[in-house]
Amino acid sequence: MDGDGKLAALAARVADHEAVPWEAELPGESSDPRIARLRRIAELCDRVRDPFSVTGTLPPAEEPEAPAQWGGMEIRELLGAGAIGRVYRAWDPALQRDVALKLGHLPASSFEEARRLARVRHPHVLQVHGVAEHDGLAGIWTEVLEGESLEARLAEDGPMGAEEAAQVGATLCAALAAVHRAGLVHRDVKTANVVRERGGRLVLLDFSAAVPSGEDLMVSGTPQFMAPEVLAGGQASRASDLYGLGVVLYRLVTGAYPVDAGSLAELKTAPRVPLRDRRPDLPAWFTGVVECALDPDPARRFPSAGAMEAALRRGEGRRRTWIAAAAVALACLATGAAVFWGWTRERPIAAKASVLRVAGTTMVPLPRGAVLRPGDRLALELKLRRPAYVYVLDRDAQGAEFALFPLAGLDVHNPLPAGPRHQLPGTMEGKPFAWQVTSEGRSETLMVVVSRDPVPELEAALARTSAAGPGEAFRGIGGLVPAPPRAPTHRSPTEVFRALRSRAGRDLFAWETTFRCAS
Amino acid sequence: MAEPEPELESTASLLRRVTERRADAGDELVRRFLPPLRRFAHRRLPPHLRGLAETDDLVQVTLLRALERVTEFESRHPGAFLAYLRRVLDNHLHDLRRRASRRPEVAVDPEDLDRAPAAQGGEEAAMIYKETLSRLPEEDRLAVVLRLEMGFTHEEVARALGLPSAAAARMRVCRALIRMAEGSDGR
């Protein structure tokens, strides 16, 4: 074989990743220098391609040498590495403090992004001090954080309760709102990108600009935080940031992800596990907020981070909410003798209604004006003479309204048949449910409408109530059927209720009762 | 040689379509690059870390995020796109290794050829390699990088470059290697 033929044959073996006995092919110094070069290329590529299977002694990897200083800052130690470079702790003489300095090669657009981020001033967004280029190296410097990520905290302490998660969520919403206001999209909202500092301050880290001291910042390496539209190849947006935040909240209270998937293909197609299935004990307002943020349709998520924050704070602050709560035993109804009569008029359709408090395995009728406490579980007992459409709503002292019946998911639907003892909210998948008082303070007014015919205006008002604030979603969830026609004017459920009461008659009754709430 | 398969779309064309927000183009790129990039990532980790499920996710996320950012910077050329992917992936893998063990690694950190070991004439080899590689036309350069550095199969190289067959990809790598071996001779 001539030199060219030999070179071509060797090149083919290199191309096929074949082991070449170079010593045999390269006898002595007089051999073809082209073959010597091919050998070096092949050996080099082998090491690059398969660094851990190369036999023989290799020198230890050399860390790229950290520059002693950059842009007047004194570099002190390596903190970590991210997508675009390495992060060092450095002393900034201008600020007279340590900063986290990320050095690398930034694409021009990221440079601009970092500049805009540097203009974001928010207590819960990592403070970017500046971005510049020196000696051909781009650098971003930020505050140094001392703490651990929410992901690390989750691993240590396990899932949180709804209240704590809601506080975290509301804080992150505020942080995201600041980022969005600056015209930026975060793109990478996840538990690993939120640090809780030792003092308790929560900080949303930006894409890859910083590393908390004492902990490696690492991509959590999971596509589970990515919104479906991004997984499908679409662009990240504010709505996809809110989806990420929804996953964060879901994860904080369950330790799991909304979609169980082992691969990307599965992630795209597998159904989401409703939060309620994993944590039936969580208050409905919280579940509602999370499910709204996780809606596959970006247009149906919260319109803004601020709106999501409001929903979280509303739920968190308004502890006096009524929710369909954990299953309770409704077996013992022996004491069901109602002591409270709600109707003040002739009542051919509804004979009797009473509010019951669940006490252990018994139900105790509540008199008007009874004092409720957080944790109390309530049910409504109704005696119907004829089949009827029943609606139950609640208004608290602050005027917030909730649909309590009918609710999607319950086994009991309108119209209710005639019968001596209907228990509402009834059962869900065969398990008895009650409304739970999860809050404290002031008062709650329970309103009940019983009608021979469907009441479209009330259904519409209730549907709007649930749509207006996902915190209340569980009560009214868009599952009311038939689909409510759009009312020409948007009256609140209470207004509709009062209008109904004024025209109550033989076939329609409207009744309300108010309870005081103790702390 | 095998006859051309007209339905095989080049990476450049797919990237162009990704920038037009065509979801199917992104899917195709993921299908095309995920398996070889996974293998690449696994080989970059010491054996005791290769079982981490995290690695698989890492590759997926890197790929998806790269696609997401295609419109934002000049990565629409297959070469730039792959270089970006590789750099990001390497940084993440470096971090994974560092996290798993604070001890220095007894292996080449392949993040950058500039850091090839000085032993065995490594520095000189790296220089020659980089220099001669840079003189190749982009398609040839990519073929060498994908096949020899990243361990794509010939078929995967063909798909990545929009070549008609695995044999065509192999031929391209061979020719590029010969040119590189000859190139520094000053011819």
List keywords for this structure.
heterodimer; A: six-stranded antiparallel sheet; elongated; B: 187 residues; mainly alpha; disordered N terminus
The number of helical elements of chain B comes to 8
Can you list the strand order of the major beta sheet of chain A?
Answer: 1-2-3-4-6-5
Order of helices and strands of chain B: HHHHHHHH
Determine Rg of chain B (CA atoms, Å): 17 Å
Query: How many β-strands of chain B, per DSSP?
Result: 0
Strand content of chain A: 15-25%
Unreliable parts of chain A: 54-63, 208-221, 318-347, 466-488
Low-confidence segments of chain B, given as residue ranges, are 1-6, 102-120
Mean pLDDT of chain B: 71
State the end-to-end distance of chain A.
Answer: 96 Å
Question: Could you tell me which chain pair has the largest interface and how many residues each side has?
Answer: A-B, 62 and 80 residues
Number of strands of chain A: 22
Question: Mind explaining what this structure looks like?
Answer:
The complex is a heterodimer of chains A (519) and B (187). By secondary structure, chain A is an alpha+beta fold. In chain A, 30% of the residues lie in helices and 24% in strands. The longest helix of chain A has 20 residues, at 162-181. Mean pLDDT of chain A is 74; it is low at 54-63, 208-221, 318-347 and 466-488. Chain B has 187 residues and is mostly helical. The model of chain B is unreliable at 1-6 and 102-120 (pLDDT under 50). Chain B is built from 8 helices and no strands. Chain B is globular. Classes of the chains: A alpha+beta (519), B mainly alpha (187). At the A-B interface, helix 1, helix 3 and helix 4 of A face helix 2, helix 3, helix 4, helix 5 and helix 6 of B.
Write a brief caption for the model.
The complex is a heterodimer of chains A (519) and B (187). Chain A is of the alpha+beta class. Helix content of chain A is 30%, strand content 24%.
